[in-house]
Amino acid sequence: MWSEKYRPGSLEEMVGNEEARSKFLLWLKKWKPGAKAALLVGPPGTGKTTTVHLAAERMGLQLVELNASDSRTKDRLSKKVGEAITSTSLFGEASLIFLDEVDGLAGRADYGAVEFIKDAVRRSNNPVVMAANNPESDEVRKLGSVATRIEFRRPEAREVEGRLEAIARSEKIPADREAVARTARSADGDMRAAINFLQSGMPAQKDAELTSSESINAFFDSPDAKSALRALRAYPGQPRDKIRDLFAAVTRSRVHEERKAGALDVLSRADVVMGRIMKGRDWRLLRYVDPLLASDLWRALGDGGLRYTLDAVPWPLQVRIWNDSKKLKDVAGRVGKRTGASQRASLVADLPYLILLCAQKEFRESLVRGLDLEENYDLFLEKEAVRSARR
Description:
Order of helices and strands: HHEHEHEHEHEHHHHHHHHHHHHH
CATH topology of the largest domain: Rossmann fold
Strand content: 5-15%
Distance between the termini: 52 Å
Helix content: 55-70%
CATH architecture of the largest domain: 3-Layer(aba) Sandwich
Strand order of the largest sheet: 2-3-4-1-5
Number of strands: 5
Radius of gyration: 23 Å
């Protein structure tokens, strides 16, 4: 894949986050036993992992890498990195211990993992660096006392475009400026995704963008599968959000149950494909998602008649969710993790209805337990349910 072929060979070749990379390199050069760890936080695809690998190579450090979300318990973490914390290699080489996705340590279910990491940082003879995608997670907050936080941000669109143009020239493929710009916008600052989009050629096939509701409704109104495909490719957001919006429209619409069941079956298959794409980061497969929906979903829905609107949720509740509460966003993020959706999709599509259901004590307590929320969320969700019911 081009994302591997054109992976930066040095820190200077990376795109964006110059300040963050410099800050991390300075931390690594000055690190001494007893000093804080580094905690790199930011969205996927912004260069956190690549920065760690290249910095370790530059400093001559042996990299000991572990995905923390795969080793949730104290015992598993100790077995994986315990020895590296206090030892050096046979030839006296120091190590750089890298714990990726520490925001995947699930609250109370971490069985001492967070405390183990905090203790390990304090007594380590080797520098420890951690990475997290969600800067607002409880795990990131708990680890803040033993870590120097370094923020990674999505590269500017012009920076992504410059890198894509260079790759296009190297591969000797035609890529006009507007096509490259569309590719950069589609990736939303994720450099890996941008490169894979360029390789797949998807954005070059995209029509002028519509709003999400315009795109979904154009799909429903399409006279044939070809028109349905054009409507889906005009969708402005991420592929997973597109599937979520289609799901919301189908479930809210008054259509025959047989048609609805057929449509939901297609959407479930598309969602499984998206899950595999995201897990394996095989972005080339994205080219098959829209044709699947344009063919099978359009056929399952028959003669149309469906409508989609973002205003299905009462406006005051939307404003409350979008603008304010950190706790509401925390709940949405946890729901999204369980359902494979983005926080935004959960805020719009799931949370309003979950809040209304939280008026029922049994449901509310079950939700708090299921999402591993702190006990004070029970009262918070109860108040939100009462407030929503009054509107």
